[in-house]
Amino acid sequence: MANESAISLRDVKKSFDGGHEFVLKGINLEIPKGSLTAIIGFSGTGKSVMLKHLLGLFKPTSGTIEVLGTDLSTLNPDQLTKFRCNFGVLFQSAALFDDMTVLENVCFPLFEHRRELKPAQVLRIAEEKLHQVGLESKHYHKLPSQISGGMQKRTGLARALALDPEILIYDEPTTGLDPILTEMVDNLILSTHKLKQGVTSIMVSHDLSAAFRIADHIAMLDSGRVLLFGTPEDFFNTDIELVKKFVNKGMKHQ
Ligand SMILES: Nc1ncnc2c1ncn2[C@@H]1O[C@H](COP(=O)(O)OP(=O)(O)O)[C@@H](O)[C@H]1O
Ligand SMILES: [Mg+2]
């Protein structure tokens, strides 16, 4: 089947209070397979809530969500847990296990989900992922508290890559980082995206210049709706006032 969308949301609505306030008010979005898509928008507009729907952590009140051709509503909880292996996720905090070494953190999803692998194979894959994100082997046996913030991000990304996911999700990966670390993480997202043909990357970002620099598609959310979806060029050429305002404001603050 020729389905070029990695993700499609059709009229997705979500209310947490049983019907009055809608956080998502009818999201329609097709994220092309193999794209690096940035999700932008003011805070509180539903970006993280939308990502959690893609992961099946929230269920829509109405509407449908398809990921890699599968309608999430057809999966039972066990199937959903397995299906989540298609995703690699990196949040604002790297969310590493504090009492595990760098290497153990990256081995964890492999021991959990690839039980057929021998320990030596798990180690080899984990080391390969750590190498891929540029972490030197002298740090592999350190605890997260013994490495820098940048190395923690690299470790979190290596762990997200452990299961060779088809879709990578980043929720505000650089919020709160200094400019140098921000650029490092953005470049890492881009190089990771380019390394595996066909992988789909979705990044929620406050950082507009990064979104314009590295993303090939951008979706702007406002009050639970998609205000504009297009290429960076579409965003510069738009007539939609709110998008213009957001872009001008965001670019001035960089
Ligand atoms: N679990 C939840 N229960 C109720 N309301 C929530 C929940 N999660 C998020 N919200 C609300 O949904 C709205 C959008 O939140 P969010 O998606 O986190 O915004 P952002 O665009 O900044 O990521 C906010 O008003 C938030 O309070
Ligand atoms: Mg958010």
TrEMBL record:
User: Which CDD domains does this chain map to?
Assistant: ABC_Org_Solvent_Resistant
Q: Which Gene Ontology MF annotations are present?
A: ATP binding; ATP hydrolysis activity
Query: What is the designated name of this protein?
Result: ABC-type organic solvent transport system ATP-binding protein
* A Pfam family of this chain: ABC_tran
Q: Which UniProt keywords apply?
A: ATP-binding, Nucleotide-binding, Transport
Q: Which residues form the ABC transporter domain?
A: 7-248
Task: Enumerate the SUPFAM superfamilies for this protein.
Answer: P-loop containing nucleoside triphosphate hydrolases (SSF52540)
Q: Which PROSITE patterns would you find in this protein's record?
A: ABC_TRANSPORTER_2
Q: Which domain of life is it from?
A: Bacteria
